[in-house]
């Protein structure tokens, strides 16, 4: 089983407001695409609704409590256990939101965390706290702000300590 999560967050762990992203960073979106392409991506229903359509070239999986829900182009699961059982043989990419990250955190092997160099005070969704001693930093890459990216950000890759 290989379970990974990918997230972009502010310096104070903010990830969203009103079911929307807090910034537009094309270089970070390109990282997201490179990291998730051709892999199954799992998200909560609200996160899917914020996207409006399935992500191309990926198996889109939506975790929801709503029995009987169907979404064109997506597969539906109703529990962490069901998701792991069905998709645990591939690198399953957890893509949010906050509640979904919290549910899957105990099972995650790898985290791709982008830290955006900004503090957001009015956010309503935050990445959950986790024990940093459970993970080992294996790579960091900093991208400086430019005409397309409004903030500096650093992409960190962590593996769970075995």
UniProtKB/TrEMBL annotation:
Record's function text? Key enzyme in folate metabolism. Catalyzes an essential reaction for de novo glycine and purine synthesis, and for DNA precursor synthesis.
One cellular component term (GO) for this entry is: cytosol
First-tier enzyme category under EC: oxidoreductase
Pathway field of the UniProt record reads: Cofactor biosynthesis; tetrahydrofolate biosynthesis; 5,6,7,8-tetrahydrofolate from 7,8-dihydrofolate: step 1/1
Record's catalysed reaction(s): (6S)-5,6,7,8-tetrahydrofolate + NADP(+) = 7,8-dihydrofolate + NADPH + H(+)
- Please give the Gene Ontology molecular function terms for this protein: dihydrofolate reductase activity; NADP+ binding
Q: Which family does it belong to?
A: Belongs to the dihydrofolate reductase family.
Q: Which organism is it from?
A: Candidatus Pristimantibacillus lignocellulolyticus
Instruction: Respond yes or no to whether keyword Repeat is given for this record.
Output: no
Keyword NADP in annotation: yes
Q: Which PROSITE patterns match?
A: DHFR_2
Source species, domain of life: Bacteria
What is this protein identified as? Dihydrofolate reductase
């Amino acid at each position: 089983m290989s379970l990974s999560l990918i997230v972009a967050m502010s310096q104070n762990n903010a990830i969203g407001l009103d079911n929307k992203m807090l910034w537009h960073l094309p270089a970070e979106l390109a990282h997201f695409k490179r990291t998730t392409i051709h892999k199954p991506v799992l998200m909560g229903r609200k996160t899917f609704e914020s996207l409006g359509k399935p992500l191309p070239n990926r198996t889109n999986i939506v975790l929801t409590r709503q029995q009987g829900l169907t979404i064109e182009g997506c597969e539906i699961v109703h529990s962490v256990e069901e998701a792991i059982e069905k998709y645990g043989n591939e690198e399953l990419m957890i893509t949010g939101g906050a509640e979904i990250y919290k549910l899957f955190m105990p099972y995650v092997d790898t985290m791709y965390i982008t830290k955006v160099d900004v503090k957001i005070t009015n956010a309503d969704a935050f990445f959950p706290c986790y024990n940093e001693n459970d993970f080992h930093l294996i790579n960091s890459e900093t991208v400086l702000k430019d005409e397309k990216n409004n903030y500096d950000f650093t992409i960190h890759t962590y593996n769970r300590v075995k």
